[in-house]
């Protein structure tokens, strides 16, 4: 969940408000569409992670827990690096 929140914060950084702006009118049209798109992306991601966990259990047995933990930590580091590398301009 933390990884998803950091990734969404990275994406939101691209659409932040500038100094004098109060509202972006394209948000009115994008929010309903993006909500549905993000829902399907999240469901596909959860499905892919379940399939990956099943494959790891079949291939590694008890070592699947450690491999899953390593993959989650690696993805957390990658997403954090992407978030920190955003510029402030």
Secondary structure layout plus pairing:
Elements: H1 2-13, H2 26-60, H3 64-84
Helix pairs in contact: 1-3, 2-3
Short description:
76% of the residues lie in helices and 0% in strands. The chain has 89 residues and is mainly α.
- Strand content is under 5%
Average residue pLDDT? 85
Oligomer: single chain
SSE order, as H and E? HHH
The number of helical segments is: 3
Distance between the termini: 28 Å
* Alpha-carbon Rg, integer: 17 Å
The count of strands amounts to 0
Q: What characteristic shape results from the CA principal axes?
A: elongated
Low-confidence stretches: none
The helical percent reads over 70%
Main sheet attributes: strand count, strand direction, barrel closure: none
Structural class, by secondary structure, is mainly alpha
Describe this structure in words.
This protein has 89 residues and is mainly alpha-helical. It contains three helices and no strands. Helix 1 packs parallel to helix 3 and helix 2 runs antiparallel to helix 3. The two termini are 28 Å apart.
């Amino acid at each position: 969940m933390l990884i998803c929140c950091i990734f969404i914060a990275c994406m939101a950084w691209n659409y932040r408000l500038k100094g004098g702006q109060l509202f972006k009118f394209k948000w009115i049209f994008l929010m309903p569409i993006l909500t549905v798109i993000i829902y399907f992306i999240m469901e596909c991601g959860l499905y892919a992670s379940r399939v990956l966990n099943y494959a790891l259990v079949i291939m590694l047995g008890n070592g699947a827990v450690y491999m899953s933990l390593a993959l989650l930590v690696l993805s957390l580091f990658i997403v954090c690096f992407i978030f920190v590398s955003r510029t402030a301009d």
